[in-house]
Amino acid sequence: MENIDEALRRLALAPVPAGLEDRVLARIAAQPAARTGLGLGALTITGALVMGMIGAGVPGRPAAAMSPLAPLGLQSPFAPSTLLAGVP
């Protein structure tokens, strides 16, 4: 396989073909632009609105306060004395 640096160096020194830029720009202009249309956008917006309304309307579980976890406290199941000796 050829050294890529040498190949790039030769390519940089090569003359640019006449009319290359004009041909490239003409082909770009000739290709039709992809359009999604208004229908797909409206469908996306409608789907997002429906999911939002369903998500807002479905009741969740009521919020409950959790007791604070103190991993090294006396009453904690994670205290070193409980973990090592098995006795609080």
Automatic annotation (TrEMBL):
Q: Does the keyword Transmembrane apply?
A: yes
**Segments crossing the lipid bilayer:** 37-58
Could you tell me the keywords of this UniProt record?
Membrane, Transmembrane, Transmembrane helix
- Specify the protein name: Uncharacterized protein
Question: What's the source species for this entry?
Answer: Sphingopyxis witflariensis
